[in-house]
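Listing S7. Sequence submitted for prediction.
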Amino acid sequence: MLPFFADLVGRTDESRRAFETHPVVLDAVARGLTVERYRHLLLELYHVVWHFNPVCAVAASRLDDRWRGIRYFLYDHMHEEQGHEQWVMNDLDAVGVPEAQVRAHAPSPWTLGLVGYNHWAAERRHPCSALGMLYTLEVIASVYGSPFASAIQESLLLDGERGVSFIASHASMDAKHMAELRRVLNQVDDDAARDAVVESALVNFHHFTGLVGTL
């Protein structure tokens, strides 16, 4: 039997490729985005990031001592991610979107579907589903974050990382996180838990790809 991390990569590769070959993603990496489209992306990301720790908290609360290592991993990850929605808020402020507008923004159906699924899956499907969410978001950030941040900086003439602090920082941070996640995923030895992680990754890739398609 393959280590679960390798199995997860194989079972979700088509969905990952659907994201990376989406015309909006290809164009954004090559040429950046207009300020209007970048604002829209950050407004959607704010809601994704705000709900990240609550989803992990639900999952951690439902993991019994059989899954102690995963529960502790989620505790540590939640601590590292605490307050990162403020980084998104700061980037929005740097590109001309005030806090009141951020808080008033109604997320798209794709974002609602992404966040709603992750809450439901952690509570009702299997608490290990949160690992599928982590896998998807960290693949996107670690692989595509750096070129995307560079393209945005150039297209919008931003000063350093001001305006791209969230995306640029997670590009480097999540490379380390991915190594940690690989170790944790290889501890998942239950078929139901593995299937829940795969389903979660597939749904997260699908909804995130749809979200990007609205830009």
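Caption to Listing S7: primary sequence and predicted structure tokens for the chain studied. Residues 129 and 195 are 9 Å apart (CA to CA). The radius of gyration is 17 Å.
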